[in-house]
Amino acid sequence: MIRLLAAAAPPGAPAASLPLDQVAAFVLVGLVLIVAAARVVGGLFVRVGQPRVVGEIVAGVLLGPSLLGPNVFRWDGAPGVLACDRSAAGLVPSISGCLFPAQARGVLAIVGQLGLLFFMFLVGLEFDLSRLAGRIRSTVVVGVGVVLSPLAAAFALTPLLYGATFTAGWGTASQPSRLAFTLVVAAMLAVTAFPVTVRILQEKGLDRTDLGVVAVAAAALVTVLMFLLVGVARGVANGGGVGPHLWRLVGTLAYLGAMFGLVRPALARLSPVVRAAGRLDTGHVAWMLVVVLASAYATDRIGINVIVGGFVAGMVMPARELTGPRAAAALGDLTLGVLLPVFLAVSGLQTDLGALGVSAVGGLAALLVAAVASKWLGGIAFGRLGGLGWSEANAVGVLMNCRGLLVLVVALIGLQEGVISAQLQVGGVLVALLTTAMTGPLVDRYLPAPARLTG
Question: Residue 441 sits in a domain of what CATH number?
Fold first, then answer.
């Protein structure tokens, strides 16, 4: 999954080969630009009542070809010190391409993945399973329901979207099947931005409320189910059998069983030692990170993404009343201030809003309506089925509609597997921005005071 966020050269263009020291230099330049842009744009969005994370997403898009690409600014006179790739005929140098060469973007992608992983680990440390007592049914019904409703919406949308504008290789031997296309669209609609939802809940002071706990648990379940759906879509697109899908499901169950049945009890033996010391030393932190990285590797190989591995690793840690503050002190500021904005920026560096044509407007409008309706209304309907009150169900629907940039991970899979076109991939960015921007104001509208949700 990590490779899906690595930036690639334009189709048909060989990537410029840079010496290692130059790659390192451009990574440092990229970090400076990304962090500065994230702070400035994120701060502006906070001033207008949006969560900072929405501004950080926009900052990533602004650094990419949408604003600084060759269709907006040609940079024929770029200084020779910059890595402007002119190795292919017709490849036009641009500000974005010169400041963020492909090799540096690949390294930044890995840095961003580590940020996402550490952030979800910190979320897992704070997640209190005991708060789910009596709410398991609600969590499961909501989590499964807000995947089924987008799946139904995707089948309804396919007759409108399955055509030359949104389907890769249309009219050629490589044209994907209708089923493969529908499943990729379904996965795009089914996304709930687990990390972004948590950040919004944290910024609003709702992450430790009863409803916040249910929303986080449901978002975690949605993430696992969505990546299982992505795996099925890839298998259908590649003409594979049912074997890989069964392996992914069995692997997921085996992984969860091992983490909660073996790793958690083994780590629990360290609790008396940690509590007696009253703190974690450097060695404890190092071993804690070993567990996090190993868990992330396992989930990446299974095919359910590293964010699930980070979250579960946090949940199985012992003495979390001590582990959490120490981990937050060691990782929190660096993760939230630097690494997570890098993750948000990397997808923006690959997104060109100028690729959208007039022919795509109607289809993308329908995609956006289906995205909002299937998750928000689906959250309300399945929330009520799960025993939530109307206000709680409505709040869950609002939170499940938040997509962040995980929808871009799904869209990139569809693009790289030759299922969807570049225009539909860019449409995924619009869905991500609009649904994420909606979430903060709607949370304020329907959940103005955390005290209303406690008890």
Answer: 1.20.1530.20
Do residues 225 and 305 lie in contact, with contact meaning Cβ atoms separated by under 8 Å? no
Domain that holds residue 273: 119-339+358-453
- Quick check: helix, strand or coil at residue 356? coil
Q: What is the pLDDT of residues 432-454, one digit of tens each?
A: 889 988 887 887 787 655 444 44
Residue 407: name the closest of 200, 188, 234 by CA.
Answer: 188
Question: Rg (Cα) of the chain, in Å, rounded?
Answer: 22
Cβ atoms within 10 Å, residue 80: 6
Report how far residue 4's alpha carbon sits from residue 364's, in angstroms, rounded to the nearest whole number. Answer: 23
Count structural domains, the chain: 1
C-alpha torsion sign, points 277, 280, 284, 290:
positive
Structure tokens at 367: 């995609």
CA pair distance 131, 134, nearest whole angstrom: 8
Question: Hey, is 432 helix, strand or coil?
Answer: helix
Cβ–Cβ under 8 Å, residues 221 and 143: yes
Listed as own residue / partner, the contacts of 17-20 with beta carbons closer than 8 Å and 24 or more positions apart are 17/103, 18/83, 18/101, 18/103, 18/104
- Whether the full predicted model's pTM is greater than 0.90, yes or no, is no
Helix (H) or strand (E) holding 320: helix 320-327
- Are 105 and 3 in contact by the 8 Å Cβ rule? The answer is no
